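Dear support,

Our group has been running a series of protein-ligand predictions, and this particular one with IPE is the one our PI (initials K.S.) wants archived with full inputs and outputs. We had some confusion internally about which version of the output was final, so please treat the block below as the authoritative record. The input we submitted was:
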Amino acid sequence: MDLKSRINREKLPHHIAVIMDGNGRWAKQQGKPRVFGHRNGVKAVRETTEAAAELGVKYLTLYAFSTENWNRPKLEVNALMALLVETIRSEIKTLNENGIRLQAIGDLEKLPARSFKELMNAIENTRHNTRMTLILALNYSAKWEIMKAVKDLAGLVEQGKLTADAIDEDTFADALSTRGIPDPELLIRTSGETRISNFLLWQIAYSELYFTPTFWPDFRKEDLYKAIIDYQDRERRFGKISEQAN
Ligand code: IPE
Ligand code: IPE
Ligand code: MG
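Confirmed final output from the archive:
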C-alpha cells in the first residue's frame, strides 16, 4: 500500500508545525553556496503545503526565519529576505487556486519594509480562503512571543482592564501571536537536529515531536506522509494511563 493511503483520515492532525532546517548543509554537500539551498527549499515548501491541504490538514506552520537568524552573515540574511518577497509574490495565485489563507507570526514590523509590505499584501489577498491556513513564522521566536504576551497582559492589568487573578491558560494563549489557532499535534524538524530552537514553546507543550535526517530541500510529500503515519501510531496519553487513554 502506498504511504498516502496508509494515513487514517479520521486521525489527521489539525495543525502541523515544521522547523525547516538543513538548507545550508544540503547546498554544501554539493559544493554550492548556502543560498542555493534556500532557493531549493522553496520546492519543499510548495510540496508540503500542497500535501497538507490535499489531506485536509487545517493549519500548517512553517518556521522560516528566527529572531536569531539576523546574526547570520549579512549576505545570507539579505538573500533570505529577497527570496521571501519573491516567493510570496509568486505564490499568491497558487494559494488562491488551492483555497489557502496565508498568515504570519513573529515580530513582523521589524522585517525590511518591502518584505513586510509583500507579506501584508499576500495575507490580505488570501484572507477569504478557508481550506487551509498556512502560517509563516518570520522574525519569530517563542521567547519574544511569550515576553510580548506578558507585557501586553501586564499593561491591561495596569490599566485596570484585567485582574491578575483572571489570567488563566486561555487568557495567556489569546495573548500569543497564535491566538485562535489550535496547538500543533505534530511538530516536524528536518536535518537531523533534535532541538526546538526557540519555536512555539507554549504551543508544543503536548505536541508529538518527529525528527528526520532529511535536509529540507529534499523534503517531499512522501516525507510528510511518513511523519503523519508515525504520529498516528503513537499513543497520546496526556498524563493518563494507557487504559484510560484508549
Ligand atoms: C534552514 O536551513 C533555513 C533557515 C534557518 C532560514 P539552514 O540555513 O539553517 O541550514 P543549515 O542548518 O545551516 O544546514
Ligand atoms: C531554526 O533553524 C530556525 C528556522 C528553521 C527558521 P536554525 O538553523 O536557525 O537553528 P539552529 O541554529 O540549528 O538552532
Ligand atoms: Mg539550520
